[in-house]
Amino acid sequence: MAQIPGNKDGAGRLDALRSARLRALYASDVTAKAGVADPRIEEAFAAVPREPFAGPGPWFIPSMRSWPARGRRYVQTPDDDPAFLYQDVLIALDRARGINMGEPSLHACCLDALAIRPGEVVLQIGAGSGYYSAILAHLVGPDGHIHAFEIDPDLAARARHNLAAWPWVEVEARSGIGQALPRADVVYVNAGITQPDPGWLAALAPGGRLLFPLQPQGGSGGMLWVRKPAENGPVWPARFVARVSFIPCEAPQDTETGLRLAAAFTEGGWDSVRSIHFDSKADSSCWFDGGGWWLSTAAS
Questions:
Q1: Taking CA 260 as the corner, what is the angle to CA 65 and CA 188, rounded to the nearest 5 degrees?
Q2: Run of H or E residues at 235
Q3: What distance in Å separates the CA atoms of residue 294 and residue 71, rounded to the nearest whole number?
Q4: HSE (side-chain half, CA atoms, 13 Å) at 40
Q5: Dihedral, CA atoms, 39, 92, 171, 187, nearest 10 degrees?
Q6: Smaller CB count within 10 Å for the chain: N or C?
Q7: Would you say 213 and 102 are in contact if contact means Cβ atoms under 8 Å apart?
Q8: In the chain, % of residues over pLDDT 70
Q9: Do 133 and 52 meet the contact criterion of CB atoms below 8 Å apart?
Q10: If pLDDT is split at 50, 70 and 90, which confidence band does 300 have?
Q11: Cβ atoms 134, 162 nearer than 8 A
């Protein structure tokens, strides 16, 4: 387990003990709020300190009521008390670009939906400073492997430094979109896009799970869970886990698809999606037609 930086004296030990106690309460709170079923997720949130990944305080917390993501207003914590980190809040990594360490209860909900098992290989697209990479590393354990992709070179360097305690995490300073990717059991995407990337689908092993924010650029959408069948047919199980609004992927976005996605989410019915189709014409069960792929309310 990663350790909190500090002196080896009594004050340093007390700081580490206080941080551990704060983490335990925080982990219990965010997993309860998310309705998490897997107790290992609470253990992971309690085990991984947030301080190294947030950087030195005081910190900036974005207002959840301000929008869009790149224009959010931030409030500064009064000081560097770690108690401010152990709340269900985003923490700014780059205020100018609206890049934040994501909301803990949302990620807890997503990780529960992915049902990550020890020994699995996970591709994380958009690692930021590495906090959720560390949570993933705790879940897969040393027999697993995390490929943490981060396109921003400065954030990738921070993540690589922060994740040194988890040698089974490999930080890759590239996008993880529009290119060949390693074979994986799980692909977890932390940036919004208007369509599933073919590379993510191709990387999945049979039974593998993909979770990504399907959303218009600069708008809100939904976290779409997709499972690759054992026999790779044209219809895969799919469902939305939650409504979300992530910073957009630095990748080609389809503006027309984005406009239609925004309208579809406004009209509702997203929670009735049960499958994604790749090679047939949309039928009456279609909730959204992305052109070459479509989401259906019928089970696979």
A1: 65
A2: strand 235-244
A3: 32
A4: 15
A5: 50
A6: N
A7: no
A8: 93
A9: no
A10: confident
A11: yes
